[in-house]
Amino acid sequence: LAIMVAGRLRCVGSPKELTRRLGGFHVVTVLCHAGMEAAVTAMLQSLAPGTRVVHQLAGMHKYEVPSGQLALSELFRAMSASRASLGIKDWGVANPTLEEAFVKVSRTALGL
Q: Is 90:31 a contact under the CB 8 Å cutoff?
């Protein structure tokens, strides 16, 4: 599998290898009460300064949290402790998908 951006070859590898190599982050999805979004974002960024909001829609926020900055155990502990105070209705964590790796390579290559 090869990833090309703007006509230039950016990387080559198997889907599993590309996801592992280009991922480097956990995908954290949080559904919270209206008005609490900034507090949830601030909490995640305090745990891992490289955390960024990927998208948000109707109270659902998707974050990329650098895996090297935050252990999953710390994430689970913080989310459990902050759930009520931050109005978190539901949340989840996952490994990045191949599509998310593609998007990351493309954004980096295009300077976004």
A: yes
DSSP 68: T
Q: Could you count the other beta carbons within 10 Å of the beta carbon of residue 112?
A: 7
Residue pLDDT, tens place only, 27-85? 999 999 989 999 999 999 999 999 999 999 888 999 999 988 999 999 999 999 999 99
Q: Determine the residue type at 65.
A: V
Return d(Cα 97, Cα 95) in angstroms, integer: 7
Nearest Cα neighbor of 98 from 20, 24, 26, 39 is 20
Q: CB neighbours of 56 closer than 8 A, spacing ≥ 6?
A: 37, 62
DSSP reduced 3-state for 33: coil
Tell me if the pTM is above 0.85: no
